[in-house]
Write a structure and sequence with these properties.
Helix content is 2%, strand content 50%. It is mainly β.
Length: 238
């Protein structure tokens, strides 16, 4: 049994042509790639050689990448349903899947549009929870955030990545002050991201957007001096 949600892009092939038969319209591939013990949440043929299927087993979620051909691997959420579509992002790309087909964007630019053909199986409304799709926008992180004396700033780079910088302070008795810093490239996709230090201090920080203006941050307590932490609930300042 396969586990999780699986979004698969498969390619069919022609075994051979009968020389005694005339030309025919290419046949669409079978209706789904889901296994017999899986629930078909969404499935459609994107062309005469491709099919895309979203399958469900239990409550786990996951998406096989390969939706433009240049991306490979497995993606494990988060993703959102908005109206009649599933939206999710991987790195610099945002994917929208609905009865119209599969659309891939990089920022505001459409990279690929592949329409569904033939019959479409669509049970997204009853199978996928709704999340604010605005949290998947590439520039939603940009700006300054703060929680007490701690501050974090996200800056979009020319190459499409997002740089994260930050300062954290712990104030002890008297003039005892310990500090910590962040500086690196934000990793991950969607409303949950991470930062891992490129030096030997082992600093790891997770960022989770609750709304466009509220962010929860947690770290492994290795991002500064004694008692310093970036943990907290941050509000957007700009």
């Amino acid at each position: 049994m396969r586990t999780g949600w699986i979004l698969v892009l498969a390619t069919a092939c022609n075994i051979g042509d009968d020389p005694h038969e005339g030309p025919e319209e290419p046949a669409l591939p079978s209706a789904t790639l889901c296994a017999d013990d899986e629930t078909v949440v969404f499935s459609c043929a994107l062309a005469e050689t491709d099919i895309v299927s979203l399958c469900k087993t239990g409550h786990a979620m996951g998406i096989y990448r390969g939706l433009p051909d240049a991306i490979e691997g497995r993606f494990e959420g988060p993703f959102a349903r908005t109206d009649d579509a599933v939206v999710y992002s991987e790195g610099k790309f945002t994917f929208t899947l609905n009865e119209s087909g599969l659309t891939v964007r990089r920022g505001d630019n459409i990279i690929s549009e592949r329409p569904c053909q033939g019959n479409v199986t669509n049970h997204l409304a009853e199978s996928v929870g709704t999340v604010d799709a605005a949290l998947f926008a590439q520039d939603v992180w940009s700006g300054a955030w703060s929680d007490g004396n701690n501050s974090i700033t996200f800056t979009k780079q020319d190459d499409g990545t997002t740089r994260v910088t930050g300062d954290a302070t712990w104030m002890g008795r008297g003039d005892v002050i310990h500090t910590g810093e962040l500086d690196g490239i934000l990793q991950g996709a969607g409303p949950q991201r991470t930062h891992r230090s490129g030096i030997d201090d082992g600093c790891e920080v997770s960022f989770s957007l609750e709304t466009k203006d509220t962010m929860t941050v947690g770290d492994n307590k290795k991002c500064g001096g004694m008692n310093v932490t970036f943990d907290g609930s941050y509000q957007r300042k700009s």
